[in-house]
Write a structure and sequence with these properties.
14 helices; Rossmann fold; 899 residues; 14 strands
């Protein structure tokens, strides 16, 4: 699994979307203080589920959202995503790439996403368990965390090693399982309390049920009485209804004539109202048109007033523009005269500047030629001087080399004699080292064999210890499993025993009698008999409700017990009576398909055996219902019970079917108690045997550990001795190699020194010849330098004179050039001012024409508005007359309607 990238948006200082790509080889983020390294670590911890705002250096979780800056607004949420690749094998998922995201809003709500799918934080923790990835895991180390781990206590470092060892996931699962077990135990306690409370409330609920039944009976009587009362009341109301119907008929006749008269008047009134509404509409229309005319007149008058005011302003602007034109024309004439004078001066300075430039060009060419001649002479002088210097240096070097060669030749001769003596000493040392190496190798071989023997012994002990520890771990697992199984069986046995003692499954009255201290019982019949597990359904079907029977210690009190049940309304109970003679019926032959008689399969105490025989008399047991039906048809005097729980009585009544399955039946429970007790005995014997094996293995492991520690110490000592011998051999071999190299070097040096002596003699002869030649060349070069220096001084004087004249001419040309530029600079604003004045005159003339055109347009508008006002005033008078007539007509009609 590889961390591919980290994406941040709106998290702390990362306002914009930022992506960190972690390529192969990237192991750390390094940067100066304040660059955001800690924010990156916080982002990784946060996206992996950090819930503490304090750990993220904030007051609340919403503080991680970018809070704005001078040039940026705050963001509404923050989001961080981690992208992993190559995850399918490490995480055990079908995805090659995994993307984990977390988003938080300003209201504090967080969302987690796994591959862009909404998920729970628990899902992310489960996915990355034992991978080293987590908010507090060792895979992400912030600044200072390594020092903290190294300086912490061993107990605090344990979590890091547990995470690396891959057991954190199992510890988490164990903690979750323990939490669920505690919750289950708490639920069981609550269920027990609820059962006790419900049992305690049964009596109260029975009393309430009796009250409810009495209420239902009284309510039924009340309904009958209420029905009779309603019937009598209905008869009286029907009599009153006949009188009211006759009176309604008389009123209806009078009502019809009155209604016809009202309809005629309403028709006339509606016609008059329609005419009145039409008159109102005409009046409203006339007033609306009158208002429009008055608005148009007011608009024309406002337009005339505005045009008069604007006309005064336009005339003022025309007058001001004409004055500006006269002033600009005067300034333009003055400016033209100044420009003409400046042009003349510019032309004169340009002519003089051109003349000076021509002279400067000719003089510059002459100076360049003289400088070239001087440069050639100077170069020749420098070349000659350089050649002389080289020859002198060469002469000195050759003389120095000659002295060195003579000295080295003498020293080499002395070294050659010394090397011969050292060769003799080195040969003797080499022979001595060879003898020491042979002895050391023999010792090393002996020590190596000892180390191999000890190593084999250590490995054998380690294998034995590993096997014993593995066996011990298996035994501990087995012992733990046995402990859990025993605890579970003890718990089930205790629950079933308590249910049996409390009479759970018996009739309500039987349970009440068992709890009562007033009567003494041996117990329920079901608790006194024993039946094998496979026959329980058949025996239960055959006994039926007789299983609920209670065995009395004193059967004389049976009537008193029944009276007690009736008096306290505790329900029904089944009691076993003794002293009743049983008529013995002749023995029947067992049907061929039957398993056996039921009485032979039920074990009961001697006191209850007659009762069991009476209850199960002539009841045969069959494997299935088909065999039972065939046997009953052949012998109707027997009863039959099947292993699946069907029962055919002596009277030929069949009981069976897919009723509610009862796993807590009385015989079933008793059989389960016996089976669990037997299983507990076996488990405890197995537990004791495994515990003995565990103790034996622990003692064997302790002994093997002691032996292994001794063997390891011996092996380490032998290794140290072998290492020391090997080091000594290596040292001797290095010394031998060094001695061989030194011997060869001495021999080589001796040969080299002899060759060097011969070569030095040859070089000395050559250097003596070079010295004579160099002395001759130095004398010739010095004569040539004297002649060249005389000619060079003459040319240098001529070049200096020409340079002085050139400098004077350049100064004069620069002066004329500066004067010319000044004149041009003075003329430029004059030309700009000339253009500006010309444009101003043209602009003002155009403005005058525009203002005069607008005055003419306004005059035409004023004339048109005055004509419109006259016509609209006449129309207003006419409209007012019409409206007056309509109002008079409306008033007359309204008076007519009201009358």
């Amino acid at each position: 699994m590889h961390l591919q990238s980290l994406e941040l948006y709106g998290f702390k200082s990362f306002a914009d979307k930022t992506i960190f790509n972690f390529h192969e080889g990237v192991t750390a983020i390094v940067g100066p203080n304040g660059c955001g390294k800690s924010n990156v670590c916080d982002a990784v911890r946060w996206v992996l589920g950090e819930q503490s705002a304090k750990s993220l250096r904030g007051g609340e979780m919403a503080d991680v959202i970018f809070n704005g800056a001078e040039s940026r607004k705050p963001l509404g949420f923050a989001e961080v995503s981690l992208n992993f690749t190559e995850c399918s094998q490490e995480l055990g998922v079908d995805w090659h790439d995994v993307r984990v995201s977390r988003r938080i809003y300003r209201d504090g709500n967080s969302e987690y996403f796994l591959n862009k799918t909404l998920c729970r934080l628990k899902d992310i923790h489960s996915l990355f368990a034992d991978t080293g990835v987590g908010r507090a895991a060792y895979s992400i180390m912030e600044q200072g965390k390594i020092d903290l781990i190294l300086s912490s206590r061993p107990e605090d470092r344990r979590s890091v090693f547990e995470e690396a060892a891959g057991i954190t996931k199992y510890k988490t699962q164990r903690k979750e399982a323990l939490r669920k077990l505690e919750a289950t135990e708490a639920n069981l306690l609550r269920i027990g309390d609820i059962i006790k409370e419900v049992k305690r409330q049964i009596g109260s609920l029975q009393r309430q049920a009796g009250k409810a039944r009495r209420y239902q009976a009284l309510h039924a009587d009340l309904q009958v009485l209420d029905t009779h009362f309603s019937h009598r009341k209905l008869q009286g109301l029907e009599s009153e209804l006949g009188d009211c119907s006759a009176q309604i008929a008389r009123i209806s006749e009078t009502e019809q004539s009155t209604r016809n008269e009202i309809n005629e008047r309403e028709t006339k009134l509606a016609e008059a109202r329609r005419e009145l509404d039409a008159a109102d509409e005409r009046i409203a229309d006339g007033r609306s048109k009158l208002q429009l005319l008055e608005n148009e007149i007011a608009s024309h008058r406002h337009r005339i007033e505005f045009n008069e005011k604007h006309g005064v302003e336009l005339r003022q602007w025309i007058e001001r523009s004409r004055r500006e034109i006269e002033s600009a024309e005067s300034k333009l004439r003055d400016q033209n005269a100044e420009i003409k004078s400046a042009n003349a001066l510019v032309e004169e300075t340009a002519r003089l500047l051109e003349q000076k430039n021509e002279e400067l060009k000719q003089l510059t060419e002459n100076v360049a030629k003289q400088r070239e001649v001087f440069r050639i002479s100077d170069q020749k002088l420098r070349d000659t001087q350089m050649s002389l210097s080289k020859d002198e240096l060469r002469h000195s070097a050759v003389a120095e080399d000659l002295r060195d060669l003579r000295e080295r030749r003498d020293a080499t001769r002395r070294d050659s004699e010394t090397a011969r003596s050292r060769i003799t000493v080195a040969q003797a040392d080499h022979k001595q080292l060879n003898a020491q190496i042979a002895n050391a190798r023999a010792t090393t071989e002996t020590e190596r064999q000892t180390v191999e023997q000890l190593l084999a012994r250590v490995r054998s002990q380690e294998d034995t210890l590993r096997q014993n520890r593995s066996a011990l771990a298996d035994l501990e697992k087995k012992l733990s499993a046995l402990d859990r199984t025993i605890a579970e069986n003890e718990s089930r046995h205790e629950v079933l025993r308590q249910l049996n003692e409390e009479g759970e499954g018996l009739a309500q009255g039987s349970q009440a009698l068992l709890k009562s201290k007033e009567f003494e019982f041996v117990g329920a019949l079901a608790a006194q008999v024993n039946v094998s597990q496979e026959l329980v359904p058949a025996i239960e079907a055959a006994l039926g409700q007789n299983l609920h029977a209670l065995v009395l210690r004193d059967t004389a009190r049976a009537a008193e017990i029944i009276s007690h049940l009736n008096r306290h309304q505790l329900g029904q109970a089944v009691l076993v009576l003794d002293g009743i003679e049983h008529r013995h019926r002749p023995t029947k032959h067992l049907p061929p398909t039957a398993i056996d008689w039921a009485t032979n399969k039920v074990q009961a105490p001697e006191t209850l055996a007659p009762l069991v025989r009476r209850l199960l008399d002539h009841v045969a047991l069959f494997k299935n219902l088909g065999d039972a039906l065939i046997a009953i048809r052949k012998d109707p005097e027997i009863a039959a019970a099947t292993l699946s729980g069907e029962f055919i009585s002596h009277a030929g009544v069949l009981f069976g079917g897919s009723g509610k399955v009862r796993k807590d039946s009385l015989l079933e429970r008793k059989a389960r108690i016996g089976a669990i007790a037997t299983e507990l005995t076996k488990l405890r014997r197995e537990q004791a045997r495994v515990e003995q094996q565990r103790v034996l293995l622990e003692s064997q492991i302790a002994a093997a550990t002691v032996i292994l520690e001794k063997a390891v110490v011996s092996h380490q000592e032998a290794q140290f001795a072998q290492t020391a011998s090997a080091s000594k051999i290596s040292e001797l071999e290095r010394e031998e190699h060094s001695a061989e190299q030194e011997l060869e070097s001495r021999k080589s040096d001796c040969s080299t020194l002899e060759r060097q002596i011969a070569a030095a003699d040859e070089q000395i002869r050559g250097l003596e010849e070079q010295t004579a030649q160099l002395e001759k060349r130095i004398t010739e070069a010095r004569s040539e330098i004297s002649l060249v220096e005389t000619q060079r001084n003459k040319e240098l004087q001529e070049e200096e004179d020409a340079s002085a004249r050139l400098t004077e001419l350049r100064i004069a040309a620069t002066t004329h050039e500066q004067k010319h530029q000044n004149l041009l600079a003075q003329r430029a604003p004059m030309l700009a001012r000339q253009t500006e004045l010309t444009e101003l005159i043209s602009t003002r003339r155009a403005d005058i024409e525009s203002y005069e055109a607008r005055l003419f347009t306004q005059a035409a508008e004023d004339e048109s508005a005055r004509n419109a006002i006259e016509q609209q005033a006449l129309e207003c008078g006419r409209r007012e007359t019409e409206i007056g007539k309509l109002v008079t007509e409306r008033t007359r009609r309204l008076e007519k309607i009201n009358s």
